[in-house]
Specification:
- The complex is a heterodimer of chains A (about 80) and B (about 60).
- The model of chain A has no long low-confidence stretch (mean pLDDT about 90).
- With about 80 residues, chain A is mainly α.
- The radius of gyration of chain A is 18 Å and the shape is elongated.
- Chain A has helices spanning about 10-20, 30-40, 40-60, 70-80.
- Chain B has about 60 residues and is mainly alpha-helical.
- Chain B is built from three helices and no strands.
- Chain B has helices at about 5-15, 20-25, 30-55.
- Chain B starts with a helix and ends with a helix.
- The model of chain B has no long low-confidence stretch (mean pLDDT about 90).
- The chains are: A mainly alpha (about 80), B mainly alpha (about 60).
- At the A-B interface, helix 1, helix 3 and helix 4 of A face helix 1, helix 2 and helix 3 of B.
């Protein structure tokens, strides 16, 4: 992700790789740089928590799960898009 | 939100499927799936931020 000779991530880097971080897809060195940036940056800590909130809210049980018709429609739209 | 991003975030975050399951179901590479998930989550975060800013709830 970054040149091994680079020292620190900046906030733009954090935004760019935050999904990789949450997926556990960062190399150990990059994960350490990410954590080091977070330790010093309240804004990025807030951003990470906002993303965790997005994920948590998305996964909250609702009265109905995704109805089968909606799921079918989503998959159909996706396949149409790919064509 | 484009259909591909909507499909990925629905399967991953709403339905709780794994990355592997999502890639298999949608015929995506891991890298493509990750990019779509990233963009979708960013959009949802932004929409939530704008919504909360509108209601004056968030600081």
């Amino acid at each position: 992700m970054t040149d091994p000779m680079d020292e620190d991530l900046d906030c733009r880097d954090v935004v760019e790789v935050v999904t990789d971080y949450l997926e556990g897809g960062l190399a150990p060195d990059d994960r350490r740089r990410f954590d080091r940036h977070l330790a010093a940056c309240e804004g990025c800590r807030a951003y990470l928590e906002q993303l965790r909130t997005v994920i948590r809210l998305a996964g909250r049980p609702t009265v109905d799960a995704v109805p089968p018709e909606t799921m079918a429609g989503l998959l159909r739209a996706f396949r149409d898009w790919r064509r | 939100m484009p259909a591909a991003q909507r499909a990925v975030i629905t399967l991953r975050d709403v339905e709780g499927m794994t990355a592997a399951e999502t890639c298999q179901l949608l015929g995506l590479t891991e890298g493509n799936q990750r990019v779509l998930l990233h963009r979708a989550r960013s959009k949802v975060r932004r929409a939530l931020e704008e919504y909360l800013d509108g209601t004056g709830v968030a600081g």
